[in-house]
Amino acid sequence: MASDETSGKDLTAADSSSVEHGQAAAGTSVVARDAVQNPGLPPHRQRVTDLDPRAEKRAERAVYTLFYLSIVGSIFAIAAYMIFPIVPEDPGSVRLNNLFIGIGLALALLALGIGIVHWGKSLMPNTEGIDQRHPVRGSDEARERSVEIFHEVIEESGLGRRTLIRNTLIGAIVVFPLPAVVLFRGLAPQDQDPVALLKQTMWKKGTRLALDPSGAPIKASDVTLGSSFAVIPEGLQDLEHGRLEEKAKSAVILVRMKPEDLNQLPERAGWSYDGIVAYSKICTHVGCPVGLYEQQTHHLLCPCHQSQFDVADHAKVIFGPAKRALPQLPIEVDSEGYLIAQSDFLEPVGPSFWERQ
Predict the structure, then answer these.
(1) I need a surface site. Which of 6, 214, 218, 304 has the fewest CB within 10 A?
(2) Which of 37-46, 107-116, 197-206, 317-326 is most confident?
(3) SS3 state of residue 180
(4) Cα torsion 296, 297, 298, 302: sign
C-alpha cells in the first residue's frame, strides 16, 4: 500500500472498474481512501403555490397582470411620442418627450421581465434534476427523447393550460418593439423624403467656400501649401432653422498640395485649383467627421474607426472599414480670387448605405 508523503494518507491503486469507465489502468493512478462522497441532492421543498391552489391562482393573476402592464407601457410610450413632440429650439420639449417615453419603455420592459421571472419561480415545475454529460450527437433514442422532453416542458410550463398567461405574454412581446419602430421613424423628416434630402446639400454653382465656424470666405491665395481647413458653404451661419442638419451634409475639408503630387482622373482635371482640392468631411463609413490630415503622406484620418483616405488619389480608402472614397467637391476661383463651388457633390455624401438608393 502506498502512502502520500505530503498528507500521510494511505493511497491505493485504481481498481479495474475505473478502466472500464475510460480512466487510467491499475498501477498508473492512485485514489484516496477517504475521498469525498457524493452528498446527493437535498430534500425537495415544495413552494406555497405547490401546496395551496389559491396561492397558485394568485400567482397566475399576478403574472398576466404584469404582462398587461407591459402592453400598457409600450402603448403609453407610443402615445407619449405623439402627445409630447420635440419642438425645434425648445429644450423643454426634449425633456418632456424623453421623460414620458422613458417611463413607458421602462414600465414595458420591467413588467415583462418581472412577469417572466415570477412565472418561472412560482408556477413552472421546480424539481431538481441531473443532466448527464454525453457526446455531442446523441443516439437516435436520445434525440427522440429530447423531442418528448420538449413537449413535456410545454405541458409542464402551462402554455397549453394557462391560456391567459400565454396570450398576454405573446401580446406583450409583440407590442414591446413598436415604440422603437415609431421612435426610429422620428429620426427622419416627417413630411419629406429623407433619401432625397441627404442627396442634396447647400453647395451649388457659385457658392463661396467659407471658414468654419466664422463663415469668412476663403481666397485661394490664403491657402498655403500643406495646410488644411474645415470649410462650410457661405451663408450657412445665417440659417435660422436646420443649420446643424445642413452642416452635417455640407462640411468640407480643404487641402493644398503640390499640383504635381495630385493623381487626377481626366474627367476631374478641372475640379481642383492650383493644387487645392476639397472633399466631404463626412466619413463614408458611419458619418464621423474626418479631420486629421498628415501633410507628408497626404492622408486623411477618421478618428472614430481609423479609416484613412489618400488626398493625392481622389481620397480613395487605403485603410479601415470605409468602403468608398470621400466625395469630391468641384471648385474654382471667381473674379475676386475667392474659392467657389462649381456645383453640388455629384455623389451621395456620408455613409455608403445611401449610395444604394
Answers:
(1) 6
(2) 107-116
(3) helix
(4) negative
- Buried b / exposed e across 240-251, counting CB within 10 Å, b at 16+? eeeeeebbbbbb
Nearest to 108, CA basis, from 140, 68, 141: 68
Name the region of 327 (left: φ>0; alpha: ψ -120 to 50; beta: rest): beta
pLDDT digits (tens, 9 = 90+) for 306-342: 899 999 998 999 999 988 899 999 999 998 999 999 9
> Is residue 17 pLDDT above 50, yes or no?
no
Give the residue ranges of DSSP H helices in 176-285.
178-185, 194-199, 243-250
Q: What is the DSSP string of 67-123?
A: HHHHHHHHHHHHHHHHHSPPPTT-HHHHHHHHHHHHHHHHHHHHHHHHHHHHHHHHT
- Alpha carbons within 13 angstroms on the beta-carbon side of residue 151 total 5
Closest alpha carbon to 271 in 308, 319, 325, 317: 325
Residues 6+ positions from 6 with CB-CB distance below 8 Å: none
- 2: cell is 502506498
pLDDT digits (tens, 9 = 90+) for 81-124: 989 988 877 888 889 999 999 999 999 999 999 999 999 899 88
Distance, in Å, from the CA atom of 106 to the CA atom of 140, rounded to the nearest integer, reads 46
Indicate the SS3 state at residue 38.
coil
What gap in Å lies between CA 227 and CA 294, rounded to an integer? 10
Please tell me which of 131-140, 185-194, 221-230 the model is most confident about, judged by mean pLDDT.
221-230
Rg (CA), the chain: 35
pLDDT at 24 over 60: no
